[in-house]
Design brief:
Layout: H1 2-85, H2 92-167
Helix pairs in contact: 1-2
Length: 168
């Protein structure tokens, strides 16, 4: 009867040591997870800001194009009305006036196209600047992190070496 009780006590001691080891293992894992989460949050915020800026530039291009198209349509409608209201051109003066009007419209169209091209170029420049800034900051961020880890490891090694020297 006494032999059975001694076996039970040995099993209970082994379980306590296993639990302590498991608890120690869990504490080490929690510290590693916290460091990874901080790095992921910083990268997500930087990407989110870049996406918002690109969307605003695209919306401006669409609005400018729609307004110009509407203006052109209105001008065409006005021309059609003038042609309908005015009698058919018989004299040379009326034909010349019509030609002058058409030339003016063509000039206006060219000007509008030039303006659109300028706007597009400006937006492209803005996008290039944004991309440049984004990459520059990304590079700087990685550079800073590299240095931070380098100093961290150096400090840890130096501290550990110093402690070892004291023990001797």
């Amino acid at each position: 009867m006494h032999t059975t009780t001694t076996t039970t006590t040995t099993t209970s001691t082994t379980t306590t040591t296993a639990a302590a080891a498991a608890a120690a293992a869990t504490t080490t894992t929690t510290t590693t997870t916290t460091t990874t989460t901080t790095t992921s949050t910083t990268t997500t915020t930087s990407t989110a800001t870049t996406t918002t800026t690109t969307t605003t530039t695209t919306t401006t291009t669409t609005t400018t194009t729609t307004t110009t198209l509407l203006l052109l349509l209105l001008l065409l409608l006005l021309l059609l009305l003038l042609f309908l209201l005015l009698p058919p051109p018989t004299t040379t003066t009326t034909i010349l006036l019509v030609l002058q009007l058409l030339l003016l419209l063509l000039l206006l169209l060219l000007l509008l196209l030039l303006l659109l091209l300028l706007l597009l170029l400006l937006q492209l420049l803005l996008l290039l600047l944004l991309l440049y800034n984004y990459y520059y900051y990304y590079y700087y961020y990685y550079y800073y992190y590299y240095y931070y880890y380098y100093y961290y490891y150096f400090f840890c090694y130096h501290h550990h070496h110093h402690h070892h020297h004291h023990s001797q």
